[in-house]
Write a structure and sequence with these properties.
The chain is mostly helical. The protein folds into 3 domains: 83 residues, no CATH class; 88 residues, no CATH class; 51 residues, no CATH class. The chain is 52% helix and 2% strand. It has 9 helices and 2 strands; from the N terminus they run ααββααααααα. α1 crosses α2. The chain binds zinc ion.
Length: 229
């Protein structure tokens, strides 16, 4: 977390547990520095991870004052769990930068390591399904990837993935043949975002996550289509 994210997190936990409020400026600055140090390797948000939510759950369930370790420990557990689920379905053909004649394998190892690091840091969803390469499911995957548009070589796309998290998430969902909320229009009456467009909040600003009813609708349609196939 950046110092700004840590400061926002502290403001949030103080709101939830007013015992954590500090009157003394110096003590508050010292706490901020300590939390920044202890949470520097913990992301504010990642796939399946939200530091603020972890803090909220801790405060809801514990009578004790929250410590940075009450956030960093669950993060490391989450990371270990994600890594244990990540099967290396690494596709060398998705990495044109790797020279197949390079017998040292260095580039391959570097790319594999980069992928594992991205999963560990939560920038990339773990690959828990074997790549789908044949049958009607593969045709569906190809159709969805084509609908998302293909105009960048995969290596460039991967480098840009964490700058374009929404597109990256959609591509990962399509590649793994998982439901993608943006495939359907949002049914939530105050949003009604058309298919392909992100959900918007009450101020019409883009939401980083779809409305839950949209995810449910997409999931229902996705599995209805799968069982019909
Ligand atoms: Zn919506």
């Amino acid at each position: 977390m950046t110092p700004r994210e840590v400061a926002a997190l502290i403001a949030y936990v103080v709101k939830l547990d007013p015992r954590l409020a500090l009157d003394d400026q110096a003590a508050a600055a010292e706490r901020l520095a300590q939390w920044c140090d202890l949470l520097s390797d913990v992301p504010a948000q990642a796939h399946g991870w939200d530091a603020a939510r972890t803090a909220r759950d801790y405060i809801a369930r514990n009578p004790y004052r929250i410590q940075p370790s009450d956030i960093s420990r669950p993060w490391h557990t989450h990371k270990a769990d994600v890594m244990s689920r990540h099967v290396g379905t690494f596709e060398p053909t998705a990495h044109p930068e790797i020279n197949p004649d390079d017998e040292t394998g260095n580039a391959y190892v570097a790319a594999l390591r980069a992928e594992r690091q991205a999963v560990a840091a939560g920038r990339l969803a773990p690959v828990t399904h074997r790549a789908i390469t044949a049958g009607p499911a593969a045709a569906e995957v190809a159709r969805r990837l084509a609908a998302l548009g293909e105009y960048m070589p995969p290596s460039v796309k991967q480098a840009l993935a964490h700058h374009r998290p929404r597109r990256a998430q959609r591509e990962q969902a399509a590649a793994a043949n998982l439901p993608d909320a943006l495939d359907v229009a949002c049914p939530y009456e105050h949003c009604l975002a058309p298919a392909g467009d992100p959900c918007r909040n009450a101020r019409r600003a883009q939401r980083s996550t779809p409305h839950p009813s949209r995810t449910e609708l997409a999931t229902a349609r996705h599995y209805a289509k799968e069982s019909a196939a």
